[in-house]
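Re-run with default settings, no changes from the original entry. Doing this only to confirm the output is reproducible before filing.
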Amino acid sequence: MKRKTITIISLVVLLLIIGIFYYRYYFVFGEGVKAGQLNYFVKKGYMFKTYEGKLIQSGIKTQVAGTIESNEFMFSVTSKSVAEKLNAHAGSFLELHYREYLHTLPWRGVSVFVVDSILSAAPVNK
């Protein structure tokens, strides 16, 4: 009887740990679309090489009164095909679909925002 109780408690604790891990690292907290000009896109990392990028959105964002700074969207990409498309559209105006996670994983990138597709791409007229 005591052995059965310990087994059940161990299984419940294990399932709880798995559930918390899933929620923190794999649960999609939000998803949406961001639009702007692709500022840079790079593959970097020490152990896990990940694709990282920055999109400059139109408009201005002020965090401190009296200052002006650009509205940047920093993101990661896990798909090699999406990364190749982004490399081909450097400097273009893009609409990107992303998923937001609660925490990062080393092999997924340094951002909680992970771009999974490009909705549209148009060259920027200068």
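Residues 29-122 form a domain with the OB fold (Dihydrolipoamide Acetyltransferase, E2P) fold (CATH 2.40.50.140). The mean pLDDT is 90.
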